[in-house]
Amino acid sequence: MSKKSFRQAINEALAQEMRRDHRVIVMGEDVAGGLGTPGDQDAWGGPMGVTKGLVGEFGRERVLDTPITESGFIGAAVGAAATGLRPVADLMFVDFMGVCFDQIFNQAAKFRYMFGGKAVTPVVIRTMFGAGFRAASQHSQCLYPIFTHIPGLKVAIPSNAYEAKGLLIQAIRDDDPVIFFEHKMLYDDIDEVPDEPYTIPFGEANVTREGTDLTIVAFGRMVKFANEAADLLAKQKISVTVIDPRTTSPMDYDTILESVEETGRLVVVDEAHPRCSMATDVAAFVVQDAFKHLKAPIKMVTPPHVPVPFSPALEDEYIPNTARIMAAARSVLA
Amino acid sequence: MQLNREQLLAAYRMMRTIRDFEDRVHTEFSAGGIPGFVHLYAGEEASAVGICMNLDERDKIASTHRGHGHCIAKGCDVDGMMGEIFGKSNGLCGGKGGSMHIADLSKGMMGANGIVGGGPPLICGAALTAKTLKTGGVAVAFMGDGASNQGTTMESFNLAKAWNLPVIFVVEDNGYAESTGSNWSVSGTQLGRAAGFGIPAVQVDGLDFFAIYDAAHEAVERARNGGGPSLIHGKLNRYYGHFEGDAMTYRGEGEVEMLRRDHDPLNFFRKRVTEAGLLEAAQLDEIDATVQAEIDASVVKAKGAAMPVASKLLTDVYVSY
């Protein structure tokens, strides 16, 4: 056990799985970098340096830089998965799904089902998401609800370095296509992360705070803010449960329902756009299955339904934060 | 390339199987027995067979919405195919895929595809698997003239060349993307496009099994020997509409009748091998009769097969390692 950043945890998961299984390869734009240049042959390791060092250990046969060609290489990753490799493809920003979505939702997601169970597609698509980087409208979205909407895809959203390593190893070993969401504001966050490989099962929520007055469900970076809010509320004698579902497909509704049956109050914190989001999804399930236990209306904490703005002043206003979660909690408890 | 008598008989048998299969599906669809969308390959048989006779069990193909011919040529079970098209439990995919998604990965057939241009990126991946795991296999992406205009196709040309992948792109140009002429819709030429990516390419008479076989032989050899991707552009004809039910009002008067009479790939093959004394007409007649009986039997089996049970709706998703 040692302290590692979210970035290191992901890098370590990739390296350990590549050592374990020669079928695991990494591919994407600039995952090594420098190909065809006179300079450094491990120039980037991705724009955030997450895959740095892998090409040195595993070579260019297993760490493949691609042209800027998302339909081409995401499709190639899917085809490689269907024929015997276990590729981890890097879709640099999830916003780029627009130029390769067919290969994900019509091809990868469907093979197993439409081929009558005779195909597996063990591809992982790692992708950066989320606001806070001043990266503006086309590099800051969450978009995981869109992938969650598609049967056949699995969707993992780690909230810290420990979760990132365990969920990524699980994703690589899973026989279904997994979209692995990495919040770009978490890469430098440090946690205790075991040195040895471990997996975190999909569809099992993590209860990060246990309390009796209120349930908060949060996703990705929002888990961090929900925990902060819970700790501050605890000082005001308000006892809060925080649930991090960790994967939205499959989704652990049971843990949420059990908690709401106990607390009777729910706040859902989702950084995605509010319409047809995980916030609306969780709220709908709880209303359907635990309505009689609710003591107050459910509160959703989300950004407004607008694109992510560039200006720091506007972006900070856009992103849900600890204060907003605390305000929502108080209103539900009022 | 000289083929022996056994190979010639196999080629003819395969082409005849595709033709009879498609003609029969046409009849059964018209009679109302087949649900959904069906796109028939009749008239294009020489391409699928000429290409796939160069492939073995290591090799993968990605097909198109017009995929029955590729399936048969790659060795998929005809009874399973017929069952699938009828939506029955004896289908290759248990009735979950249908005509547009017939697949048998155990045969290296990675699926017909409902998305025009869906196959080329996937086949780059299959080729990457072959290259990475050193299987010696090659991967073939069949596409129509319509798919040749998709961005995914162009991206795949570039990726296959950049990664030096063992890929063969086969453009089956039947002159019509749905109802729109490739004369109008394809800018430049297929060979010119390939040349733009530095990919060796050849145009062949898509009715001529022997020309296609030879072109594929060269491309497959190149791919197996590490020479990277190739493109084969076959000009050929489809006898039926884009989909079953298409009235084909966009085609010339008498066009299809003329093609069937004067430009049929099976007739061409028969004439060529009998005139050259390679095979006897009687041998081919015997194949015609046998295949006809097999297709009849596959329809009987498909009609008699059970529908999938309702519980199958919920299987084959979210299966863990």
Short description:
With about 325 residues, chain A is an alpha/beta fold.
Name the biggest interface.
A-B, 50 and 48 residues
Oligomer: heterodimer
Supply the number of helical segments of chain B.
Answer: 12
Rg over CA atoms of chain A: 20 Å
β-sheet strand percentage of chain A = 15-25%
Number of strands of chain B: 7
Domains counted in the coordinates of chain B: how many? 1
Distance between the termini of chain B: 46 Å
How many separate domains make up the residues of chain A? 2
Average predicted local confidence, pLDDT of chain A? 97
Structural class of chain A: alpha/beta
Number of helices of chain A: 12
* Distance separating the two termini of chain A: 43 Å
Low-confidence stretches of chain B: none
Describe this structure in words.
Chain A is of the alpha/beta class and 334 residues long. In chain A, strands 3-2-4-5-7-6-12 form a 7-stranded mixed β-sheet, with helices on both faces. Chain A has helices at residues 6-20, 54-58, 70-82, 101-108, 111-114, 144-148, 161-173, 221-235, 253-263, 278-290, 312-318, 322-333; strands at residues 2-5, 24-28, 63-65, 86-93, 124-129, 154-156, 178-183, 190-193, 206-209, 214-218, 240-244, 247-249, 266-269, 299-301. In chain A, 36% of the residues lie in helices and 19% in strands. Chain A is built from 12 helices and 14 strands. Chain A has 2 domains: 2-193, 3-Layer(aba) Sandwich (Rossmann fold); 206-333, 3-Layer(aba) Sandwich (Rossmann fold). The longest helix of chain A is centred in the first third of the chain and has 15 residues, at 6-20. By secondary structure, chain B is an alpha/beta fold. Chain B has a single domain (5-304), classed as Thiamin diphosphate (ThDP)-binding fold, Pyr/PP domains (Rossmann fold). Chain B is 45% helix and 10% strand. Chain B has helices at residues 5-30, 45-52, 68-73, 78-85, 119-132, 151-162, 182-185, 190-196, 209-224, 255-262, 265-275, 281-304, and strands spanning 60-62, 139-144, 167-173, 176-177, 180-181, 201-205, 230-235.
